[in-house]
Write a structure and sequence with these properties.
This protein has 80 residues and is mainly α. The protein has one domain (2-78). The chain contains three helices and no strands. It has helices at residues 2-14, 19-44, 52-78. The longest helix has 27 residues, at 52-78.
Length: 80
C-alpha cells in the first residue's frame, strides 16, 4: 500500500502539485485501502469459514482496484 501511495505522491509532485491530476488515482487508493480493511476483517473473523464464494468477490475487487490505480498513476506520470 505504501508503494501505491508513493506513486500518487510522485505524480502529484511531477504535475506541480495539482490536485485535479491525482484525484482519480487518490480516490482509487482510498477505496483500495477500504477493500484491504474489509479483507482483513473477513480473514481475522474466527466465525467465517474459508468459503471461496464469500471471499473471492472481495479479492477480485481488491486486485482490480489495485491494477486500475497502478495503471492510471503510471500512465499519468509517463506524460510528464
Amino acid at each position: 500500500m505504501i508503494i501505491f501511495f508513493s506513486q500518487v505522491f510522485r505524480c502529484w509532485i511531477i504535475y506541480g502539485r495539482q490536485y485535479l491530476i491525482i484525484l482519480p488515482s487518490l480516490t482509487l487508493f482510498l477505496v483500495d485501502l477500504a477493500m484491504a480493511a474489509k479483507l482483513t476483517e473477513i480473514h481475522a473473523n474466527p466465525h467465517v469459514t474459508a468459503n471461496m464464494n464469500m471471499i473471492a468477490p472481495w479479492w477480485l475487487s481488491f486486485l482490480a482496484l489495485t491494477a486500475a490505480q497502478n495503471t492510471l498513476t503510471t500512465c499519468t506520470s509517463l506524460f510528464d
